[in-house]
Amino acid sequence: MKLILVVALALAAPASASLVGQGKNLYGQYCVSCHGANGQGVTTSNVKRAGAGPLRLQAQQEAIAPSLKGVGALAADFYLTTGYMPLQHVGLQPRRTHLVLSPRQIDELVAYVASLGKGPAIPTPHPKRGNLSVGMAAFTDHCAGCHQVVGEGGFVTGAVPPPLEDDSAVQIAEAVRIGPYVMPTFSTKAISNAELDSIIRYVQYAKHPDDRGGWAIGHIGPVPEGLVTWLVAMAVLIVACVVIGERLKHE
After folding, report:
1. Confidence band of 134 (pLDDT split at 50, 70, 90)
2. In terms of pTM, does the model score above 0.70?
3. How many domains does the chain contain in total?
4. CB-based burial of residue 135 (10 Å sphere; 0-12 exposed, 13-18 middle, 19+ buried)?
5. Helices 132-142 and 193-207, interaxial angle, to 10°?
6. Which of 207, 222, 237 is the C-terminal boundary of a domain?
7. CB 3.0-4.6 Å disulfide test: which of 79, 123, 153, 236 passes with 163?
8. Which of 95, 115, 135 is the last residue of a domain?
C-alpha cells in the first residue's frame, strides 16, 4: 500500500511541476507585459515600456493591472475560460470572446497563477441541490439590478453587465466570488454555497424558461416587453380611431 502511494506521488509531482513550468512560459507570452514579472502587478509607479505582449497595442502598455499573487486558481480559471483574458485592448471592459488559449494551455496557466501564492481553488457548485424559487429570490436581490431578472444583461454606469446564457455553473460560481470588473464580490457570508447553488440553478432555468401564457420576445426583460405592449396598444388605438372616423364621415 505504501509503495502504491509513493509511486502515485512520484507520478503526480512531475505532472504538476510540468503544468506550472509550461504555464510560466505562457505567462511570459501573454501576461507579463501587464501583470509584471512573478505576477506582482503593474501600477503607475512601476510600469515600464517593455513592449506589449501578443494581441496588445504598444501604446497601451501603461495600463494598470492587478497583482495575481493570492488570487488562486479560481480567478485565473474564470478570466481564461471566458476569454476575458488576455485582453486585446487594455483598459476596456473584459468581454466574453473566443478563447486564445487551448484547454491544455489554460490548465497550465491556471496552475502557474495558482503557484504564485495561496488562494482559492476552482469551485465545484452543485446546482441540482439548489432550490429554484430560493434561487430566483436570491438572484432578484443580488443580481437582477444589473443582469435583469432573466439574466439577459443590462447597462450600468461605466460598464455593460453581460448576459449569462453562455456561463457554465463553475463560471457563475467563480464570478460571484471574485466580482469581475465592476461587479461586487460576494463572500460566503453574503451568499452561502447552498444559496449559490440555488442561484446557479435559477440562471440555468432562465436560459430556457417555460413561457406559459405569454410571448417570450427573446427573453430580453420586462422593459422591452412593456414597450411592445404599448406599441401594440397604440396600433390598435389608431386603427380604432380610423374606423370610427370613417363611420362618422358616412353618417
Report:
1. very high
2. yes
3. 2
4. buried
5. 90
6. 207
7. 153
8. 115
